[in-house]
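Quick illustration, no need to memorize.
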Amino acid sequence: MLIRRPRPAQADRATAMSWAFEGDCNGTSEYEQNVMKYWATREKEETGNAFYQQGESVNEAARVCIDRGIWIRRRDCTARDKTWV
């Protein structure tokens, strides 16, 4: 299993935000998911910070998708192509 280091996680977060400026929910979610996966590997070593960073990633992706009117499934926190009901 490849463990991502913080620098690539920071780069993924920056790339996610560039997709956010384009209003691309799927692109943003893809890169934010990489950030969440990295911080999931750090939960034992950096418990408080890891959970905080995961929450920030989910929040950023959710805001982009909500702005675009795309439904976010709570179960897996990834964007889906569903419209608001």
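The chain has one domain: 6-83.
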